[in-house]
Design brief:
Length: 139
């Protein structure tokens, strides 16, 4: 059995963004949430010149959501890594980058829904972090 790993980092097929305004005690802050897919591939099965090729390319994409509050770089961080997309293609993974990109891009609606849900959920946490930072600054 042949197993290989490949990470496709450049040219991520999904790059979704969402901007919100958070009103807090010190005013208002624009916050950008961005989602990117980190794709990993694995070839499974075997390839032999005398037998039928049974190789398949399995891909997995972890969706990473990062928040970036304007003028508050200390509160920039990854807020979610809990969505995983996956699929498979016939054959070895080598040379399948564009086909995998197309399959991942076809799931953009799922990623956008996840991004919006994460942003909504994180806004309460971000508000608490902003308030805590304000209290530390006033002490």
């Amino acid at each position: 059995m042949s197993i290989s790993f490949l990470i496709i980092a450049a040219g991520t097929p999904i790059a979704a963004a969402h901007d919100v305004r958070i009103d807090h005690h010190a005013g208002a802050t624009q916050v950008s949430y961005s989602a990117q897919a980190e794709v990993k591939t694995r070839t499974i099965g075997s390839s032999s010149p005398t037998k039928t090729d049974t190789q398949r390319c399995r891909w997995m994409a972890d969706v990473v959501v990062e928040r970036t509050p304007q003028n508050m770089p200390h509160l920039t961080r990854v807020v979610s890594r809990d969505q995983r997309l996956s699929g498979s293609l016939p054959g070895a993974c080598a040379g399948k980058g564009k086909a995998i990109d197309r399959e991942v891009a076809a799931k953009e609606g799922e990623v956008r829904s996840h991004l919006l849900a994460v942003a909504e959920k994180d806004s309460r946490l971000l508000m608490a972090e902003i308030n805590a930072a304000g209290q530390l600054a006033s002490n």
